[in-house]
Each structure stands twice: as C-alpha cells, then as structure tokens.
Design goal:
Three copies of one chain form a homotrimer. By secondary structure, chain A is mainly alpha-helical. The first copy, chain A, contains 14 helices and four strands. In chain A, helix 7 runs parallel beside helix 9 and helix 9 packs across helix 11.
C-alpha cells in the first residue's frame, strides 16, 4: 500500500511537470507574436522563422547534448558530464520541461536583433546558445552541485538562469549588429512603431499564461506540500505581472501624458521576469512590490538604452529580460520571507544574489560576445542595406507575410 | 495511510483548480480578440488597454479586498467580512480561480461601450466593479451563507453571478454612453462591421476552450466522484456551445439568406453562457436544448436591442451575457434532472431561479447605474466627437495599432 | 483502502484525458489559423465558418451516433452497435476526447478544398464524415475488436485513423472540386501565396501544442507506468516535429536557395503527423528519424501533387495528413522498438501496417468519393466563377473579414 501511494505522488509530479512544460512551450508563440507585433510587417516571416528555429533546433540540440551538459553529474561544479541523445525513460518529463526553458532563453535574443540580422548567423548563434551558453550557466544553479547552488544562490525559476542570460546575449547582439537604418538620425532616436498591437497584446497574454507553468512548474512537484507552494507561486506570479502592468501604465501616463500600450505590455512582462527568481520565496505583498519596481525599472531602462546609450532594441528585450531579470534576482535578497533583508536576514542573501547576477551576467556577456564577434568577422551579422530597407522577408525568405494588403512602409 | 490518501485527493483538487484557473485566465485574451475583431481598427489599442486593465487592476483589487468581501464570513447573508491583502497559504488556488472569474465579469462591459468611452472613466468603473459590485452579489450565491444560497438558488458556474452581472452593467453602460457616431441615422440602424473576423473567431475558440475550465473548474474538486461530474460538465458545456452555434448559423441562414459569421460565433458564446448555470445539473440532452434556446435567443435579442431599442452594443455583449445568462439561469428550473420542471420538480426551482435572476439583475443595474451616472456627471463617459471619429487609439493612447497598413475608414 | 487508491488512479486518468482533450480541442483553432493564413483574405470568413461547423456539427453528430458507431460493441469487427444520444456518466471524458479527434479528421478536408467550395455542400460532407466515414474505420483500429486490431495493426494516436482518413478525403475533394481559377495556366502551376504568415505560424504553434494532448492523451491513462509512457510520448512528439521542421527548412534552403516559411511550418506538421502512429512505440532517436523522413517527404509530396499531378491543395493537407500519415504508420513497422524491422522484428509488423494503411486508405477514398460525387451531381461542389473571383466571404456569407484595410487582390 505504501508503495502505491508513493506511486501516486510520482504520477502527480510527472503530470504537473508535463502540463507546466506544455504551458512553457506555448510561450514560444507568445514571443513570436510580441516580437512580430512590435516590429514592421516586412520582417514577420523572418521573425517567425527565427522563433521556430529556436524551438526546433533547441529541442534537438538540448536532447542531443544540452540537457546532460546542464544536468549531468557535475564536473568541478562548473559543467555536467555530457552524454549524447538523452534517453532515460523515467526522466523524459524533466527533459521536456528543461527543453522548453532552453528554447525560451534562445528566443529572447531574437527580439533585440530583429529586422536587420542575417538568418544564417542567427541560426548558428541559436544552436550555440542552446547547446553551450545556456546549459553551462544553468548547471551552476539548477543541477544541485553547481558553484552558485553551493553559495546559496536563489533563482527559483530563472530570472537570471533564463531571462538575464537571454537578455545579456541580446545586449551583445544589439550592440554588435548595430541600430536599424533610420533609428538614430542627427543624434535623435526615432520611434519605429510595431505593425500589429493586437499581436503584441495576444503575445503578452500568452506569455503571462505560460509563465504560470514556467514558475509553478519549477517547483518540479505538486504532491503533498508542493501543491500549496505551486498555488502560492501562481498568485505571486499573477500579482507581480499585474503590478508591473499597472505601474508602467501609470508611469507612462504621467511621463508622456497618455497611457502607452507597448510600455504597459512590457510592464507586465517586466513584472513576470522580476518575480521569476523569487516566486516561491516571497509573500504576495512582496510579489506586488517586486512587480511595481520591475514596472518602474523597465520604463526607465528602455528609455535609457534607447535614448542615452542609443542601443536599438526593437522590443525592449534587454530591459525586460536582462535588467528586470537581474533586478528580480537581487530583490530575492530583500523580500525573501526566509533570509531577505526586510525579514531580518541581513545582507548575506543579497550578497549571494549579487554574486550570481554578476557571475552569470559575465558568462553570458563574454560567451555571446566571443561567438557573435567571430560570426561578425566571418559570416557577418547583418543583411545589406537594400535587404534591410526592402525587408528581410523578401530577401532572406523570398516571401511576404501579408501579400493581400497595401503596405505603407 | 488514511491521511496520505486524503492528502492525494487534496492535491488533485488543488491541481485541478489551478489548471482550470489558467484556462479561465486565457479567456481574457479571448475577450480581447472578440472585442477588437468585432470593432474598428482605429480602436484596437484602446480595447487592448481596457482588457489588460480589467485583468491587472482586477487581480490587484480582488486580492486587496474583493475576495474577502465575496468569500469572507457572511455579514447578514449579504456581504463577506473584508480583510486586506488576502494571504492564506492553503487557499491561494481558490484566490486565483476566483480572481480570473472576477476579471471576466469586468471585461464583459468593455465590449458594449467600445469605441467611444473615455479610458480614465473605464478604469475607475473596472476598479469598482471588481472590488464591490461583483464580489457582493457573488457572495449571495457562492459563499455558502448568502441569501440566495439559502433560498436554493442554483448558479453553478455563474450564468448570473458572472455573465448577467457583466451583461447588465454593459446595458447600463451602453445606454449612458450612447450610440457611436453614425450608428443610427434617420431612425435606421447602420451596421458597423468589425475589422478582423479571424481575431473574432480565434477569440471565440479561446473562450470556448477557457469555458471548460470555467465550468468544470467550478466543481472546485476533481477527486472521487467529482471526476465524473467534471467530465459531465465538459460534455454539457461543449454540446451547448455546439448547439448554440449551429442554431444561430441556421437561423441567420433562414432569416438573412446567408449563414452569418458574427451571429454564429455569438451563438456559440450564447450557448456557453446559457449552460454555465446548469452545466452540472442537466443531462447532455438538456444541455443541447439549452444551447438551441440560447442560440435562438441571442439572434433575436441582438436584433431587438439594436434595431428596436436602438442601444448600440458593438459586440452583442448585453444579449450574449445578460440575456442568455438570465435565460440559462431560468432554464435550470426547467432542465435540472433533480428539481427541474421537466423532471417533475414543479415550479419551485424555477421560481427560485427567477428570484435570483431578478435580484442580482437589479443589483447590477442599480449599482452600475449609480457609478456610471456619477462618472458621467463628473469625469464624463465619452470622448469628444473628434476623438471618436479619428479613433481612440490616436487620442487616448497616442498610437496606431496597424501603422504599416493602408486603412480605409 | 485498496479501493481508495484505485479511485485515485481512476481520477488521475480521467483528469489526464480531459486535459488532453482540451488541448486537442485547441487544435481546431490551429487548423483555422493555418488554413486562413495560407489562403487569401477574401475567403477567411468561409474558412472560419467551415472549421466552426466541423467542431459544432461534429460535436453534436458524434454524441448523437458517431461515438457508439465507433466504440459500441463490435458487429463483425466492422462497426460498433449504435445507440443514440450517448450518456454514460462514467465515460463522458472518453466521449469528449474522441469527439475532438473526430472534429480534427473532418477539418483536414477543409484546407484542401479551400477558396472554391460551396458552404452548403461542405456542411453536408462534414456531417457524413463525422457520423459515418471516420467512426467506422476508427472502429477497426481503436474499439478493441476491430479487424485491424485483431491483425496487430498499430496506430497509437491516429496517423492513419485520423490524419490519413482526413488526407485521403481531402485528396478526393481537391480532385472533384478542381483547381482554383488561375492556379494552373498554360500548363504551369502558379503560386497563390497565403494572406497572413503570422496566422499560419500561430496556427502551427497551436497545433504542435495541441498534439501533446493528441498523442500523450491517447495513452488514455496517466496512472502508474502510464505516466512514463506519456512523458516519453511528449518527447517523441516534440523531437519528430522539430526534426520535421529543420529538415523541411534545410531542404527548401538547398532546393530554392532560401529557407521557405510555409514549407518549414508544414515540415513541423509533417513530423507531427508522422510520429502520431508510433509515438508510444519508438525511441527518441527513432522519432527524430521519422521526423526527418516526414520533413523530406512533405516537401517532395507537395511539389509532386502541385506541379506534376496538378491537384490544387492550397494548404498542403493531402501531403501533410494523407501522405505523411501513411508514411508514419508504415514506419512503425521499421522503428518500433518492439517488433520493428530495425529491431529484428522482421517484415511482419511492416506488412500489417501496410494492410492497415491500404485498407483504411481505400475506405476513405471510396466513401468520400461516393459522397462527394453524389454531392457534385446534385447540389454541386463549387461556387460560381464570379463568386470565387470576388471571394466566398462576400457571396457565401455576405461579409468581409477585413473591411478596414485596402486589399490588393
């Protein structure tokens, strides 16, 4: 009998992880919708292809080697022992869950380099991201014997492991590939509005939805007490997203005179990224505050990166995933009900969080710089001027996303 | 051992409620798609923002006070005892499930007042709806000690508690804000076709999908016999939707000479709203008949409200949610296999259902009238003529949803 | 106690089947998006209506009689004993799961005959498909006593039972209704690009997502060992889709000089259709190879059917569902770890698979030919030239999908 009950708990956990993984899988379409909605109609096919490649190549690559590099027996707390073509019957649900996480990290980069990057180059980078860059730093935190785990670093569902890694790679990509033609003229930043706000909104709804799987699935169990944990995570996740959206809405209303849609949508995403590290460690109130801080941060960060640094990030991926990912990871050290500064935990946890943010940040920046710099000097990162102006869809893929409609630009 | 088995059942129930809640969450994007698809392209951003606000503000407000006003210990069978910032670890799954229900009620109003309502005013109304109007009447039926519960009123998943409340508030809103410019000229009603029927259809598919969570999740359990109940509910829900769609399709084919898409889509929604009250109480056959009656009703009701009453409801929200919500609630008194008129139950249950429909209807009409009337006399409900003609996106949000495309109107 | 534990397992299984069914339900919107995205903007409403009818009519028809014709007590291993208005409380989850499968089979036909078929005729065909054609051949394989089951035929989730049946009916439909005006001129095949590649991509994402329910739900259980089986199926499903997409992408890159989006999307679908029969019988590696072979096959098959046979299939449904469905079913005889050719199983299983493919193929071809031929000679299959040129939306449904936008064609 005892055995049977244990079996039931195992079934519950496997089922939960599969369902959560399916929700995270859905996020891939959310990213595609946001990225295409926030950019121009002449580059939609290219964006679809990039996101599709992230998922397809990522699925194959992570199964081929990525998963064991991340979760295999630790070599020096730095990297897992690789084994090819992972096939352990009792662990397939985890392979699936981690595969869709990996695809997410890769896809973040796509938005920041949108509308001017060569498809070939992107495919190669995506492959390296999913086989090497993401699995190795992931190993540090989630395998159990990584050096950051040993330090006590907390990143429950991946504000840093997934989002910042993607965000910093996006930063490197955006700098190396350079701004879109017409984005900065006479020292001024020109807005290039996205072509379909309904796609953008639908994408954010889907991402918010998928995030319930992303965060609550990262409990990696549902049996026993885990059921309460998972439900708590769904609430912290939802409140942070809501608070991020309302904050960004209010802030743009105050600053620009009108409530702005793309910032509001990004505010929700910022709240989601921000809560990801601490979703299981903070109270609902803490989650709401993290959402507010993320919503404020994303607006100022997008402005700063765009107008001051003059780095062209069409969808705000660097701010949403990189900056708010780092912020959220640090805030665990403040708001964690067990160990956070506000709960009498001292600066210890905050310090560990900072080490993790900096360590993984450096890893992502350096490795993606090496890869993208080599690609720039060899294949080239960027399409030609003519191709960029006429659109990547026509030149990279020989098609048009909306051939029936009269297009103005 | 006994304890362990009970624990497993509790886990199953929590898991089911979370999954159902996630499905209901998804409905928010369905509402946004339907509302934007059924209206003009110049107001898409505004519609996105309103629905987003319903979700974000609703999530915060319901957590802040709404949930305990609805489910707190009953004060005189009328209202729950409020407590702020709800945070009971063992009940977070219920908070989530009820939060997404609340957001649904608020969002119904959005469609009826689309294309001419001030954003500021809408945000304030949404806040009052989610903190006060919806939770109080909800308390009457779902808290367990409410006066309608005590009478024996049956509204399993909210034909009245959610949909009619939203629908009657929508009616008040549509009357007070008045018809769109150009809708009624020389005593004639002019059709203003929606700008994207694929969005409308995708929205209805998503709503239909989410409704499985809405209705079957309202079982609030899955363990033991509840699993059969939930499966039965999924069938009654699906059959009513299918019957509603086919009926509206056939009726428009007969009446207008051609099968009409927006009525067919609304027919499915009407069937879904209609079955919501009785989804656990009627047989599959009863569900199909409720679907047919809802499908018939929605077509005539939309015509009547539009052409006879000359109330401008761009998406048919009053008919779908208000009228069919009331109808479905009443039909429980006819088709419930335990207590319905057709099963020898006499007029007793039907009478109780009528009391609930009228009581909650009066509550929703009166409270939303008070709120919206005050808003009309102070902030104003409506944008200026110029703003309406040029579109709310440009004037309320300083943007355009589709800047790449040539727009005809 | 023992009873209680068994009950928990039953609940788990019912819950899993419901969740999987909801995912399969979602596929209906995926089909609608792909079909409308891959065709012209003037026929969107018609496509929405057809897919909606497949779901609505199919839900009613399968409940009315289809389910028992398929799963009722076997009459001569050929057909189930029908009983009307199925209502067995303990089996409603299975009714739901099989209903959404049935709707899928019907909807496959829609794409192949898109943009020129009479709505009336389509509705009648869809009704016959869901009440007779699909349930009967389904009985042969899935009821337990069917003649193909007795032979040892393996089609775990329906490469043949669902997809090939739909695909061969689509072939008959496309031939009988004839090519679209302008598709073939002077012996040359002209490309008619789809009107919205983002819809196409979103549709494929949703189909891929829903397929996890389609395949892993076909385990029809999750308790005990089934949890490992289901997780394994999710991995084989995901790898085959990924391999199909990457293969089609690479092949079009090589053949056409550029990576082509619609072929890449169809490559993923081909991999999904291909793995459906063997998802529970092959290893992850076998799944990846089946994906590669399906991705290769779909590109050549689409070219062959279009350019050589000159059969106009706007979305590639015949190749994706018919050809890759047959291929995947046959490949079970090669890659099944228990009984496949590569695992020392000899030609036995492969032979049985071939019998099933041919037997069900003949059934689908002959029955749909009879039905569609009679419809052609009576009601007619095709709209008039004028209606086709101006679009089915205007003529069949008196509307336009995008009235705000300037349409070029």
């Amino acid at each position: 009998m005892e055995t049977n009950v244990i079996e039931v708990n195992a079934v519950l956990d496997i089922m939960w992880i599969m369902i959560a993984g399916i929700l995270v899988f859905f996020m891939q379409s959310g990213f595609t919708l946001v990225e295409s909605g926030f950019t121009r109609s002449k580059n939609v096919i290219n964006i679809v292809m990039k996101n599709f490649v992230d998922l397809a190549v990522g699925s194959l690559a992570f199964w081929f080697i990525g998963y064991t590099l991340m979760y295999g027996e630790s070599i020096g707390s730095f990297i897992g022992t690789p084994s090819l073509f992972y096939n352990v019957r009792e662990d397939m649900h985890n392979l699936f869950f981690q595969t869709v996480f990996c695809a997410t990290a890769a896809t973040i980069v796509s938005g920041a380099v949108a509308e001017r990057t060569k498809f070939t180059t992107y495919v190669i980078f995506s492959l390296i991201m999913t086989t090497l860059i993401y699995p190795i730093s992931g190993h540090w935190v989630w395998q159990g014997d990584g050096w950051l785990t040993k330090l006590g670093f907390i990143d429950f569902a991946g504000s840093t492991v997934v989002h910042s890694v993607g965000g910093w790679a996006a930063l490197v990509g955006a700098i190396l590939v350079g701004p879109r033609i017409g984005k900065y003229t006479e020292g001024k930043s020109n807005a290039i509005p996205g072509h379909n706000m309904m796609f953008g909104a639908l994408g954010v709804f889907i991402l918010w939805l998928g995030w319930f799987g992303f965060n609550a699935g990262s409990e990696l169990a549902i049996s026993g007490e885990s059921s309460f944990n998972a439900a708590g995570i769904i609430i912290t996740t939802n409140l942070a997203a809501a608070a991020g959206a309302v904050t960004a809405l209010a802030l743009t209303w105050i600053r620009y005179g009108k409530p702005e849609v793309s910032m509001t949508l990004n505010g929700a995403l910022a709240g989601l990224v921000g809560i990801t590290a601490g979703c299981a460690a903070v109270s609902p109130g803490g989650a709401a505050i993290i959402g507010v801080l993320s919503g404020l941060t994303v607006v100022f960060s997008i402005e700063f990166i765009d107008k001051t640094l003059k780095i062209d990030d069409p969808v705000g991926a660097i701010s949403v995933h990189g900056v708010c990912g780092a912020l959220g990871t640090l805030l665990v050290g403040v708001f964690a009900t067990d160990g956070g500064l506000l709960y009498g935990g001292g600066f210890g946890q905050l310090g560990v969080q900072a080490i993790g943010v900096v360590g993984i940040g450096a890893w992502a920046l350096i490795t993606s710089f090496i890869v993208l710099f080599i690609l720039k000097k060899t294949l080239g990162l960027r399409v030609t001027k003519e191709e960029e102006i006429e659109g990547l869809d026509m030149h990279e893929h020989d098609g048009a996303a909306y051939p029936d409609f009269t297009i103005d630009r």
